[in-house]
UniProtKB/TrEMBL annotation:
SUPFAM superfamilies: Winged helix' DNA-binding domain
Matches recorded under PROSITE patterns: HTH_DEOR_1, WYL
GO MF, one annotated term: DNA binding
Identification of the protein by name: Predicted DNA-binding transcriptional regulator YafY, contains an HTH and WYL domains
Domain WYL stretches: 141-203
Keyword ATP-binding applies: no
Transmembrane found in the keyword field: no
Source species taxonomy: Bacteria, Pseudomonadati, Pseudomonadota, Betaproteobacteria, Burkholderiales
Length: 325
DNA sequence: CGAGTTCGAAGAGACACCGT
DNA sequence: ACGGTGTCTCTTCGAACTCG
């Protein structure tokens, strides 16, 4: 005969594994009488599990979807994976989710054996990333947008652009992209009849229009991440530049963030980068940090800007050298 | 076709037994 | 003594079946 608590967990497991169970079958599997099964079902109901019982020839017990999850048993690697996922979520920049993830993490780590706990901490410490610097995103907004993507539901919202100008949008949401501490929505803008990228933190609570739409094949052959990358690195800015870099693309792919510039190969020794910014100064400063040689293709003003910058640096260095002698 | 009957299953009370 | 369990018995409920 199984111990009481073990039997309750087994009973729960059985109820979850099949839509309906006869009391007699449960009793046989658990090695107890039907009366004891009824008492156990009562215990589970007392703990808050919604177990429905249907009388009659086709009757039986079934576990309904409830408001709380039944107890879960994790293997060591599963617990480690959940712990790591919660740590990542706790720093995801999504409001409410961060708090919930942290709360769940505290509960999980309290229950994990000390050895597993140390392993999880060590693992996460080795992949520690930079502190979250992006804007906070409302979980409800994110959930509504994700729901619209999944259910092909047209959404309406007010969008505040980079110049704080608010416009009303009706969109057919295609997908969400998380990049560099920010969330982006890729959607077909109905009134503009074109694809658009929206910063989720600038979306004022969206509502469903109730209308469904036929799914479209997304921009960039459905590669939303590439589309967002291109949109936010160049298209969104008033100043755009095209620069040839004297290094193979593979050598630079790791060091140049996709949100800063779009790389494309030219030949085995060179590649070209398309980038954008609010002003020439930002692009020039970025170019100065590159440890490769480059040729400015566009715009000619960038070359002038770099020339002036170079002259200033020359004069500064000249004075410094003179003072040292 | 509707009312009554039958059957099978859950629900529950009372009591006894057993192990801790 | 107490909690858990088994046995017996009765009630309730819903579906299937029967009959006028």
């Amino acid at each position: 005969m199984l111990q009481n608590s073990t039997r309750l967990l087994r009973l729960l497991g059985m109820l979850r594994s099949s839509p309906s169970w006869h009391g007699a079958v449960l009793a046989e599997r658990l090695g107890v009488t039907e009366r004891t099964v009824r008492r156990d079902v009562d215990h589970l109901r007392g703990l808050g599990y919604r177990i429905s019982a249907t009388p009659g020839p086709d009757g039986g017990y079934s576990l309904e979807a409830g408001t709380t999850l039944p107890p879960l048993l994790f293997e060591e690697d599963e617990a480690l994976a959940v712990s790591l996922a919660l740590r990542t979520l706790a720093a995801s920049g999504v409001e409410d989710v961060e708090e919930s993830a942290l709360s769940a993490l505290v509960k999980l780590e309290h229950l994990m054996p000390p050895g597993h706990n140390r392993k999880a901490r060590a693992f996460f410490a080795s992949i520690q990333k930079l502190a979250q610097t992006g804007p906070k995103v409302d979980q409800a907004v994110l959930a509504t947008l994700a729901g619209g993507c999944a259910d092909h539901e047209q959404l309406q919202f007010n969008y505040r652009d980079g110049k704080a100008q608010v416009s009303q949008r009706t969109v057919e949401p295609q997908g969400l992209v998380n990049a560099e501490s920010r969330w982006y929505l890729v959607a077909w803008d109905v009134s503009r009849a074109d694809w658009r990228t929206f910063r989720v933190d600038r979306v004022v609570p969206p509502i469903s229009s109730g209308a469904r739409f036929e799914p479209r094949s997304g921009p960039d052959k459905g590669d939303l991440a590439a589309y967002v990358s291109r949109s936010v690195s160049t298209a969104a800015y008033p100043v755009r530049a095209k620069v040839i870099l004297h290094a193979p693309m593979q050598a630079l792919a790791q060091s140049i963030c996709p949100l800063v510039g779009q790389l494309a190969p030219l030949d085995s020794q060179r590649c070209i980068v398309h980038t954008g910014a609010h002003d020439l100064h930002t692009i020039a400063s970025w170019l100065c940090t590159l440890e490769v040689e480059y040729d400015i293709q566009e715009p000619p003003e960038l070359l002038e800007f770099l020339r002036a910058m170079n002259a200033r640096i020359d004069r500064t260095l000249g004075r410094a050298i003179k003072a040292a002698h």
